[in-house]
Amino acid sequence: MRLRFIGIDPDTGHVGSPTVWVDAESADIVLQSYTADEETRAQCVKNTAPGHAAGIPDHESVIRIPARLVPILREACDAAERAQL
Q1: 6, 22, 27, 61: most buried by Cβ count inside 10 Å?
Q2: Kind and range of the H or E element at 63?
Q3: What is the predicted pLDDT for the residue at 73?
Q4: Coil, helix or strand for 42?
Q5: Distance from C-alpha of 20 to C-alpha of 49, rounded to nearest angstrom
Q6: Residue 10: CB partners within 8 Å, gap ≥ 6?
Q7: Collapsed DSSP state (helix, strand, coil) of residue 19
Q8: Is 7 helix (H, G, I), strand (E, B) or coil?
Q9: How many other CB atoms are found less than 10 A from the CB of residue 23?
Q10: What angle do CA 81, 83, 85 make, to 5 degrees?
Q11: What is the pLDDT of residue 75?
C-alpha cells in the first residue's frame, strides 16, 4: 500500500487534523477525522438502509468529516478515479 497525501483540514492545527489520502494501488480513499459522538452513532444505526443489518460492526467506525473538507474530498475522489483508469 502506498498512500498519496491529498490534503488536510485547513482550519485545524498541526495535531489531530482531519486528513485525506488515496491508496495509489487500490484507489481507496483513506480518512482521518473525528470519531462520531454517541448521538451521531445512534442516528446512523436508526437510519440504516432498508434490508441492511442494523448496528455498526466492531471492525467499522463512524467518523465525522467537517464540511470544510469537502473540496479536499472531491480532489481525493478525482485522484481515486484517475488511479483506476
Answers
A1: 22
A2: strand 63-64
A3: 93
A4: helix
A5: 26
A6: 68
A7: strand
A8: strand
A9: 15
A10: 75
A11: 93
C-alpha cell at 26: 487500490
3-59 pLDDT per residue, tens: 999 998 888 776 678 899 999 888 999 999 988 999 998 888 888 777 777 788 888
Task: For residue 3, list its beta bridge partners.
Answer: 23
Cβ atoms < 10 Å from Cβ of 49:
7
* Overall size of the chain counted in residues: 85
Please give the backbone phi and psi of residue 31, each rounded to the nearest 5 degrees, phi first. Answer: -120, 140
C-alpha cell at 6: 491529498
Q: What is the pTM of this model?
A: 0.77
Q: Is the pLDDT of residue 85 over 60?
A: no
* Strand order through the sheet with 3-8: 3-8, 19-23, 29-32
C-alpha cell at 33: 477525522
Q: How far apart are alpha carbons 41 and 47 in whole angstroms?
A: 10
Give the cell for residue 25: 494501488
